[in-house]
Amino acid sequence: MKILFVLLVIICGATIFKFNDLELSLLNNGFSWTMSKMIPYLILTIGGILIAYSFAKAFKIKSKVLKFSLIILLFATPFALGFILNPIYEGDFSSEGTDLKNSDVRLAKENYDLVVITIPNCPYCLESIGKLKLIKKRNPNAKILFSVCTSDKENLALYRQLINGDFDIDLAKNLEESSKLADFAFPSFVQVKKGVPVYKWSNDQFGAGAMDKFEGEVK
């Protein structure tokens, strides 16, 4: 039991400190966004139960109060540390967004599956690029446009450098209509079908559930 206890501590420790790497590995191996997000937390939860159990069986402590306290501490610690270092944010597992089926806005000259409405020098827009690259990698046929609400092409330079040709980037076709469609919240992720916007997620809403929904419809 002592060997099992040590082994479980190592596994939970590795999961905590390699949390993002584990999540990325699961995504790269075909797991859904939701499952890839959940599995590390499940490992830590189950690991905490097994660590507490193996400790109770492997170590003899005369004080029942102390032993019980340590068992509770060992049970809770893996998940607590994992959550502190990798918190779950509102919308991480949600697929809820806004229905746009009555919209007649044309966001681009070509037909795209996903148009991301952004503005220049936006840190959240920059942060979204890594996520979009992974969506494109997982769905090579998905057509993605990074649409920047600006009339100055020089404002595209940094975004273009980071995107590095993995998906399209262009000036917004209509600044006013694009900004209104995004409710002036950037980035906004707009699902498009036959050139017409049909569904929209804000940055807070475009979590694992939303990406699973989008990938399920684009495949």
TrEMBL record:
InterPro entries (UniProt xref): Thioredoxin-like_sf (IPR036249)
Transmembrane segments: 38-56, 68-89
Protein name: Uncharacterized protein
Keyword terms, alphabetized: Membrane, Transmembrane, Transmembrane helix
Domain of life (superkingdom): Bacteria
